[in-house]
User: What shape does this take?
Amino acid sequence: MPLPPHDYFAAGLDADPELAAAVNGELARQRDGIELIASENIVSACVLAAQGSVLTNKTVEGAAYARYYGGAEFADAVETLAIERAKKLFNCRFANVQPHSGSNANAGVFLGLLKLGDPILSMNVAAGGHISHGHPATLTGRDYRIAHYGVNRESERIDLDELRDLAQASRPRVIVAGGSAYPRAIDFAGLRAIADEVGAYLLVDMAHFAGLVATGLYPHPFPHAHVVTTTTYKSLRGARGGMVLWNDEALSSRINAGIFPGVQGSVMLHAVAGKAACLGEALRPDFRAYNEAVLANARALAAALANRGLRIVTSGTDMGLALVDLASTGVTGDVAARALEKAGLATNKNMIPFDPRPPEAPSGLRLSSNAGTTRGFGVPEFERIGDWIARIARNPSDMQAIQQARQEVLALCRAFPIY
Assistant: This one.
C-alpha cells in the first residue's frame, strides 16, 4: 500500500504533540506487530483519506435527497454511491449505510421490526454469539425477551433440531444467525425454514464473513434472510461502521426509521465515504483473490496449531476466524493473550463452547487471518505464526522465548510493511 497523502495522515497532528505521539505509537504498533484480532483489518490509503476528509465537517439527517439540512448535494452523492455499491456487491435491492456500527445496525433493525418486549432467538455469547444479539448487559437484552440457542456438545456446531425446538417453545419474532466466534458455515436455508414455521423474521449478521459472502466463498444469506446486517471493517477491509441490507420493499420504511431517528442521529459522512471506498475496492476482481487467501491462511493457521497439540474448536474453520482451546496447556486465554502481545502478536481471549471458565479468564483464544493476509502473508507465514503462538501459549512466562519470537515477528513485519 502506498503512503497516504501527508496532509491527511500527519500534518494536522503537528499542532498537538501529545495526540501525535499516541497516533504515531499506534502506527508503529501496527507496522511492527501482527494483528490477529478478528474485528480488525488494515484499510487502504483511499479509505484513510475518505475518513479523514472534509466530509467530517458536514451534518446531514435523513435519507439521501430527503435531508433535514441544506447544502447536501455532495453528501447525497457520497451516500448514494455507497448504497449502490453495497447493493451490487451483495446482489440485493435495498441498503442502509448509515449505521455507526454493527451493533447499531442490529439495534435499528430490532427497533424497526419489533415491539418492546417481543421475543428474539439468538446464539448464546458463550457458544459464539455476539453481545448485540441480546446479551443482558445491552439495550437489546433489556428491551426484548431473549432466548438463546447454542451448539451441539459433540460437534460444536449449530443443531437445527435443537434450534427448532427452542423456536417452537419461545415463538420468536426474529431469529438471529451469525456471531463473533462461530467459525463454521451456517445453514441459512434450514434457519429460514424454522423461521417460517414460527412466523419469525430471519436476521443474518454476517459481520465476520461478509467479504467471503461477497466473493462466493461462503453461503449467501440471500434469498433466505429477510434482513442482513454487517460491519464494513473486518473482512471487508474498510471503514468502521455498519450496514443493513434487504430485498422486501415493505420493510424499507420500518428499517430506515429504526436506524434514523430510531437509534442514532446525524450521518457520519466521513465514515460513509470510507464505506463507499471499501465497497468499491470489494467490487474489484482482486478482492476474491484476497478472500481466497484469507480462507487458506486461516486453515493453515488452524492446522499449524493442531499439529502442535492445540485443539481447534469444531476441528477447523470455514472463514477467516479460528477458535483455539488452550485447556490442555493449563494456561487461560487472558494469560496467553498478554504473553503473545509482548511478542508482537495481538490476539483476544475468548470463551469456547461449554467453557467451564469465566469470560474474564476463559479457555480460548480467537484468531483471524484477515489483517495478516492484507499485508501479504501467505500460508508459510501463518504456519510460522502458529508455531509462535503454540510455543508462547504453552509457556507464557518464558521471557527468553517471548523475546526471541518478538525479534522474529519484527523481521517478518519489516518484510511485509504496511503504509
Q: What stands out?
A: The domain at 54-282 is CATH 3.40.640.10 (Aspartate Aminotransferase; domain 2). The mean pLDDT is 95. The chain has two domains: 54-282, 287-415. DSSP finds 16 helices and 15 strands in the chain.
